Amino acid sequence: MNQNTRAQSTHARFPAEWEPQSAVLIAWPNADTDWADRLGEVEETYIALVAAITRFQDAIVCVADEDVEAYARARLSSARVDMAKVRFIEAPYDDTWLRDSGPITLRDGDGFRLLDFRFTGWGGKFDASQDDLLVERLTEAGIFSKSARQSIDFALEGGAIDTDGDGTLLTTWQCLHERHPDASRQELTTRLADWLKQDRVLWLDHGYLEGDDTDAHVDTLARFAPGDAIVFQACDDESDSHYAELKAMGDEIAALRTKDDKPYRLFPLPWAQPILDDGRRLAASYANFLIVNGAVLMPAYGDDADAKAQAVLAEAFPGREIVPVPCRSLIWQNGSLHCITMQLPQGVVAD
Fold first, then answer.
1. What is the pTM of this model?
2. CATH numeric code, 2-345
3. Which of 31, 105, 315, 321 is most buried, by the most CB atoms less than 10 A from its CB?
4. Domains of the chain by residue range
5. Which Gene3D superfamilies match (predicted)?
C-alpha cells in the first residue's frame, strides 16, 4: 500500500457516486459489438438493468443507429419499462463498456467539466477508435448542460479510479503502471490529483481477478462507501487461486487511513464459487456494483453468495434499496454491472 498526498485549491470537485444523479449512461449491445455470439443473453441483462435504473432515475441509452434504437425501444417497452425515463442517443461505439469510454464528470462552480481521457482499449488489447470519440460525440449531440469538455491526452479508464467525493482517490498500481510504464508513482499521483482535483491518491499494490482484462481496475476490487467506509471483494477459500492476493489486498485496505488518520470502516464482500466458460475462469466480482439515487444495483451471479453480498451492501449503504441485477452474461466478456454504466451527476443532463 502506498498513500500520497497533494494539496489542491480549486472550485472543481469530483463527486462521489452516491451523490445525486441526473441519469445513468449505457450503450445498447448489438450484433456489431463483441456481444454478437450471445446477444440474446446479454440483452436480457440490459433490459433488467434499464428497468432497475428507471425505478429511480433516467437512463440515457446510446444506440448505433435507428434500427438498434427501434429494436431496443421495442424490447424495453415489452418489458414494461417506464419509457418516459429512457432517452436514446445515436452515436457510434465499438463496444458497451461506458465506464471506461464515457465522461468523468467534475462539478465546476455552477457548471460541469467533462474529462475526456484517451481510451485505448485497455492498453491496446481491443480496437477503440469509435469509443475514444464517444464523449466528444455526446457533447456535440447536446445531451449535457452547463458543461465544457476537457480533452486530456492521457490513457485513463473510469473503472480504474474511485473517489469518496471529499478529495481522496483510490486506484491500483498495476493498471496505471501498465498504461504508463515510464511514469513513476509520484508522477502519476501528481497528474491524477491535478486532473481529478484530489487531495490524496491511495494506491493498492495487490488484488486481481482471473478473467479480468483491465489490468486490475479498482471497481472490480474495492470501492468507497459513505462515512469513511470501503467495500471490497474478499476471498475466504484458501484453496482458491485468488486467496493470497485478495488477502494481501484486504490487509492493505485495513492499513489505509482517512484524512483524519483513522482506519476506514471495512465491508468485505463474499466470494462466489468459480464460474467457468469452456474452462476459462470468469471474473465474478460483487464490488462491481452501481450506485443510483436511493439504491445500489448489485451484480448477481446465481450463486449462494448473492444473498450474502446483498446483506453486506445493505449494511454499507444504509437507507438504500439493494437491487440485484443478473450479470452472469456480462462476465463472459470480462466485466460486470459497473463496467457497462456511467453515472451523470445531477444537473449535467440537458432537458
1. 0.96
2. 3.75.10.10
3. 105
4. 2-345
5. L-arginine/glycine Amidinotransferase, Chain A
CA-to-CA distance for 199 and 216, rounded, in angstroms?
23
pLDDT at 53: 98
Q: Where are the alpha helices (DSSP H) in the chain?
A: 39-53, 66-78, 98-101, 121-124, 134-140, 173-179, 185-196, 243-255, 305-316
Q: What is the pLDDT of residues 247-300, one digit of tens each?
A: 999 999 999 999 999 999 999 999 999 999 989 999 999 999 999 999 999 999
* Surface-to-core class of residue 53, CB atoms within 10 Å of its CB (0-12 exposed, 13-18 middle, 19+ buried): buried
Q: What is the pLDDT of residues 155-191, one digit of tens each?
A: 999 999 999 999 999 999 999 999 999 999 999 999 9
Chain-centre distance for alpha carbon 303? 22
Q: What is the DSSP letter of 160?
A: G
Residue 3 has which C-alpha cell?
A: 498513500
Q: Which residues contact 29 (CB under 8 A, 6 or more apart)?
A: 35, 39, 42, 43, 46, 96
pLDDT at 127: 87
Distances, alpha carbon 310 to alpha carbons 209, 287, 299, 323, in Å: 20, 11, 9, 8
Give the Cα separation of 5 and 189 in Å (integer): 8
Of 341, 340, 336, 335, nearest in space to 125 by CA = 335
Q: Are 26 and 61 in contact, with CB atoms under 8 Å apart?
A: yes
C-alpha cell at 18: 452516491
* Dist. CA 170–CA 172, nearest whole Å: 7
Q: Count Cβ atoms within 10 A of the Cβ of residue 127 and give its class: 0-12 exposed, 13-18 middle, 19 or more buried.
A: exposed
* Count of positions (residues) in the chain: 351
d(CA 260, CA 275) in angstroms, rounded, equals 40
What does DSSP say about strands 2-5 and 200-204: parallel, antiparallel, or unpaired?
Answer: antiparallel
